[in-house]
Amino acid sequence: MSEVVIDVQSAFAGLLPVPAERGLAATERAGLSIASLSVRRGQRAAVRDRVAAHFGIALPDGARRVAAGAVAAAGTGPGTWLFTRENGANGLAADLKAAVGDTASVADQSDAYAVLRLTGPELRETLAKLVPLDLHPRAFKVGDVAATLASQIGVLLWRLEDGAEGQPVVELAVPRSMAGSLWQALR
Question: Which pTM does this prediction carry?
Answer without folding.
Answer: 0.89
